[in-house]
Amino acid sequence: MSNVVLITGASRGIGAATAIKFAEHGCAVCINYVQNKEAAEQVQSRVESHGVKSIIYQADVSQSKDVESLFENCAKYLGTPNVLVNNAGVIAPQTNLFDLTEQRINSLLTTNVTSTLLCSKQAALIMSELKGGCGGTIVNVSSKASVTGSPNEYIDYAASKGAIDTLTKGMAKELAPHGIRVNGVRPGLIYTEIHKDAGEPDRVDRLQDRIPLGRGGYPEEVAECIFWLASDRSSFTTGELIDVTGGL
Ligand code: NAP
């Protein structure tokens, strides 16, 4: 697989593991981050240890100007991307409906949903075979929360992931004639720092007994599925959402 892969939110967690997975397979990787440059640099050195090219690029992917310059710089230094992984996402402290604020809801939806639409639009513009591009694949990182709804924890976050499931289906059908496949993964409880942002760093350990496989998941296990969906091995798969949850 010789590709240029753009991964949003690749400085930590699932995005970082995905960057390293693609590098292991010989792909050039554009590592996006929003504030944690040091973490992005660490991922870059692990990516480049596999002998591939990479760049790190700071961009808030919920902002269209940032998204445009992210894609421009990826194309300039690595070549036109033919894989986009919409991974960047945030959560907010656990609470219930009564304590949700306008500011929190809008900020979360913008970061999780607007970003995915903006990046996908930019990718489609350059990948579309009908517009002179070479085709490509998009993989969206949703969450099993889109199915459970996350009551009394973060229904706004769960709803943002419901939107990711829906736009994955719509984009897959819309972009199929353009030579672009679109799929998604729905991770369950994965060991990353996101749970700290929700106010419970040990959430995965607390809930692991509910997981049929009896443990939390690792970012590398999600990355494996993302890689498969982005690669030619899944050439007849589009509009699908694969759960990576240990059976939850
Ligand atoms: P994480 O460890 O908290 O990492 C989040 C990443 O997103 C970081 O690289 C962060 O960059 C980046 N980011 C945040 N806001 C951004 C923005 N506006 N623009 C660009 N980058 C931004 O999270 P994670 O657990 O790996 O989550 C990755 C994805 O998986 C998310 O979409 C999340 O909803 C989903 N997910 C996670 C789990 C889980 O259990 N961990 C389960 C289901 C779904 P900085 O380092 O610069 O802050």
Task: Characterise the protein shown here.
The protein is an alpha/beta fold. It starts with a strand and ends with a strand. Strands 3-2-1-4-5-6-7 form a 7-stranded parallel sheet, with helices on both faces. It has 9 helices and 7 strands. It has one domain (4-244): 3-Layer(aba) Sandwich (Rossmann fold), CATH 3.40.50. It has helices spanning 13-24, 37-48, 64-77, 102-127, 145-148, 155-175, 194-197, 203-207, 219-230; strands at residues 4-7, 28-33, 54-58, 83-86, 136-141, 180-187, 241-244. The model has no long low-confidence stretch (mean pLDDT 97). It is 44% helix and 15% strand. The protein binds NADP nicotinamide-adenine-dinucleotide phosphate.
* Count of discrete structural domains: 1
Strand content: 5-15%
Strand order of the largest sheet: 3-2-1-4-5-6-7
Which architecture does the CATH hierarchy give at level 2?
A: 3-Layer(aba) Sandwich
Distinct ligands: NADP nicotinamide-adenine-dinucleotide phosphate
Radius of gyration: 17 Å
Total strands: 7
What is the CATH class name?
Alpha Beta
CATH topology: Rossmann fold
Number of helices: 9
| N/C terminus separation | 32 Å
Which keywords apply here?
single chain; 248 residues; alpha/beta; Rossmann fold; seven-stranded parallel sheet; 44% helix; binds NADP nicotinamide-adenine-dinucleotide phosphate
Summarize the SSE layout with pairings.
Elements (H helix, E strand, L loop, with lengths): L3 E4 L5 H12 L3 E6 L3 H12 L5 E5 L5 H14 L5 E4 L15 H26 L8 E6 L3 H4 L6 H21 L4 E8 L6 H4 L5 H5 L11 H12 L10 E4 L4
Parallel strand pairs: 1-2, 1-4, 2-3, 4-5, 5-6, 6-7
Helix pairs in contact: 1-2, 1-9, 3-4, 4-6
